[in-house]
Amino acid sequence: MKLTPAMQNFILHWGEMGTRWGVNRSVAQIHALLHIASDPMTADEICEVLGLARSNVSNGLKELQAQGLVKVSRQLGDRRDHFTSIRDMFDLVDAVIAARREREFAPTLRALDAVMQEAEGDSTPKAVKERMGETLRVMRMFDDWYADFSRLPRSVHLAVLKLGAKVARFLPGGKQTE
Fold first, then answer.
1. Is the Cβ–Cβ distance between 86 and 95 less than 8 Å?
2. Stretches in the chain below the pLDDT threshold 70
3. What topology does CATH give the domain 5-85?
4. Residue 168 DSSP symbol
5. Which residues, 6 or more positions from 84, have their beta carbon under 8 angstroms from its beta carbon?
6. Is 128 helix (H, G, I), strand (E, B) or coil?
7. For strand 78-85 and strand 70-75, is the pairing parallel, antiparallel, or unpaired?
8. Looking at residue 36, what is its pLDDT?
């Protein structure tokens, strides 16, 4: 695969974006390449195109598979694995959000639950307990909203996205959009 300057810039930016989200740059670049590739690629092809070490690509592919962002397939007459990114953008975004929720948000909820139980049995000041409790309640509210929303059909997701900020005019105190 020959990369055009635009393809290179896409891969480089995806790698930079990944580092800001706590993802290894190489892993993000592998994902970007697979995302724009028209056909599944082998690990050796990925190494060649991106100029990465085979071990780096192998580890990156394992990480991407564990996150559900990359699928592996086989081809008749070829013993090598072939990799492709999730093609559907809604499925891709959903997989990223679900992985981040499990890795970051859910553990924070569990930790806050434990802290609140601990605070009930120690001398934590009432105002501090109330603030921590509010933090936990709001975070649970967002998590419950996400869980409810994620179960809705894609057609509803699309309708909400298309409605966008216009939803404010239907809410109490909302502004009229132009």
1. yes
2. 174-178
3. Arc Repressor Mutant, subunit A (1.10.10)
4. G
5. 34, 37, 39, 40, 41, 70, 71, 73
6. helix
7. antiparallel
8. 96
Q: What is the pLDDT of residue 175?
A: 67
Q: How far apart are CA 43 and CA 162, in angstroms?
A: 38
Specify the amino acid at residue 107.
P
Rg of the chain on CA atoms, in Å: 22
Q: How confident is the model at residue 80, as a pLDDT?
A: 93
Q: Specify the pLDDT at position 161.
A: 85
CA–CA dist 175, 87 (Å, integer) = 37
Nearest to 42 by CA among 55, 61, 65, 59: 61
User: How far apart, in whole angstroms, are the C-alpha atoms of residue 149 and residue 158?
Assistant: 12
pTM (two decimals):
0.78
pLDDT of 176: 58
Euclidean distance between CA atoms 122 and 71, whole angstroms: 49
Cβ neighbour number for residue 139 with a 10 Å cutoff = 14
